[in-house]
Amino acid sequence: MELKLNLSRFTEDEVKKLHDFARVRRVNLSELAETQLRECMQTQEKQFTDAGEYPCCSLAAHERQTKSQIMSKRWTKSLSVTGLVLALALHGAIGQAATPSALESPKETRVVVIANTSAEADGLMAVLTSADMRPRSLHNTPQPAEKYASVPPHGLRGFYAENGVTVEFWCVWELPGGDRPTDDTLNKVNQLPNAIQPPGKVAPAMVIAFGTAAGHWETSYNGSVVVGSAVLLHSPSFLKDKDKEVAKAVTNTLATRGVALDTIVESASGWHFLSNSNVTGFFDEKRAEMEAKFLKPPLNPAADPVVLLSPNRIGLSSINVSRTSDYARADKETLDVASNAMSKSTKTFDVGGVETTHALIRAFSPKDAPFIYVTAIANRLGYFPMELGPRRAAQHVAVINNAGVVTAYLVDWIIRNPTLLARSP
Q1: Which residues pair with 217 in a beta bridge?
Q2: Contact criterion met (CB below 8 Å) for 209 and 373
Q3: What angle, rounded to 10 degrees, do the helices at 392-416 and 277-291 form?
Q4: What mean pLDDT comes out for the span 348-359?
Q5: What is the mean pLDDT of residues 299-327?
Q6: What is the C-alpha R_g of the chain?
């Protein structure tokens, strides 16, 4: 029985090239099947050999090797675009392809990783592109955003598409309107839905907030990485009248998501994810390997930067702060509000750190998908002028590297264990 092409696997440009191929060969595209693919591949084989590429691209070799083995030979640079599309179609028809397109069917499993600042996104991508820093089992660097769509969305830095899982890496500051001198909360609440669920994409099966935070401990944990699943939002009480109008718009938007300020917002599925024995076992096994790749920041580093993981650690977000000089005061107020909320809770919580964005990302994440945050401690709360300001770039590079290492190992584990997040057909 001939296997037919599945056009839903291809972009608009690829479908156009398939139509061109069918017109030249005078065949009906809906009837195009393995016979046409075989003819195309055989006519290309001499081109591979003449170009000095591996001769493993014959159709017989296609039927013996997995797609990842074929692609590792880098034969695509001498294959015409039409030939490449048809070769991918052959794999799709046979049903052996382990790596779906980033714009795959609704059954795809999307994991969305969102960094706040460009510096944080830079550090994360630097780890993922470093063979020394990422885990050995994560063999490849992320694919560039240009391969995600013909017009890459703003804010997307890159993605993996392996083993039925698509992991996307986004930057909040690079979303439309994000290039402003202040940390614009209103723009974040307007733009985050476009990253978490772009038009035409399925809802994410997991969301990971990535960034840096101030630690609340008197002892320095600078350079350590906190992983948690609960959050709390607070808007400072000392806002000026103009800022109060913006804050009201933010609060109203959050209310449409069922999220209230000054309240502990849990992620039940995030809690279960971080409590899963497979996940805790993974962290126990890889903790020493991850921490061995941590860098000590130059200003008041922790004696030994470590991973602090608990599903009950709350990430605190101070929002609507438009002046850097107000952060110390706003963060202290947020910490006081969180302490009050924790004292009234029947559950035991601890604070993970204070920053600006993790809780906003949680607010726009699907309620039934695991949400967690991975944040590096850059300085102690209230010590920004002493522990970050004097050597901000060096301090950030070190601590962001550490959060990037933890995220890279976690992403690798998720890709290798897709059934933990896989959606039901």
Answers
A1: none
A2: yes
A3: 140
A4: 96
A5: 94
A6: 24
**Structure tokens of 123?**
């550090």
Q: What is the 3-state secondary structure (H, E, C) of the chain?
A: CCCCCCHHHCCHHHHHHHHHHHHHHCCCHHHCCHHHHHHHHHHHHHHHHHCCCCHHHCHHHHHHCCHHHHHHCCHHHHCCHHHHHHHHHHHHHHCCCCCCCCCCCCCCEEEEEEECCHHHHHHHHHHHCCCCCCCCCCCCCCEEHHHCCCCCCCCEEEEEEECCEEEEEEEHHHCCCCCCCCCCHHHHHHHHHHHHCCCCCCCCCEEEEEEEEEECCCCCCCCCEEEECEEEEECCCCCCHHHHHHHHHHHHHHHHCCCCCCCCECCHHHHHHHHCHHHHHHHHHHHHHHHCCCCCCCCCCCCCCCEEECCCEEEEEECCCCCHHHHHHHHHHHHHHHHHHHHHCCCCCEEEEEECCHHHHHHCCCCCCCEEEEEEEEEECCCHHHHCHHHHHHHHHHHHHHHHHHHHHHHHHHHHCHHHCCCCC
Is 221 a residue whose pLDDT tops 50?
Answer: yes
Look-up of token digits 């048809």: 86
d(CA 372, CA 113): 10
pLDDT per residue as tens digits for the range 143-182: 999 999 888 899 999 999 999 999 999 999 999 886 665 5
Q: How far is Cα 216 from Cα 380, in angstroms, rounded to an integer?
A: 6
Q: Which residues contact 349 (CB under 8 A, 6 or more apart)?
A: 230, 264, 312, 313, 314, 342
CA dist., res. 166 & res. 112, Å (int) = 8
- How sure is the predictor about 227, in pLDDT bands with cuts at 50, 70 and 90? very high
- Residue ranges and CATH numbers for the domains of the chain are 7-94 (no CATH), 109-420 (3.40.50.1580)
17 pLDDT more than 60: no
Largest CA distance in the chain: 75
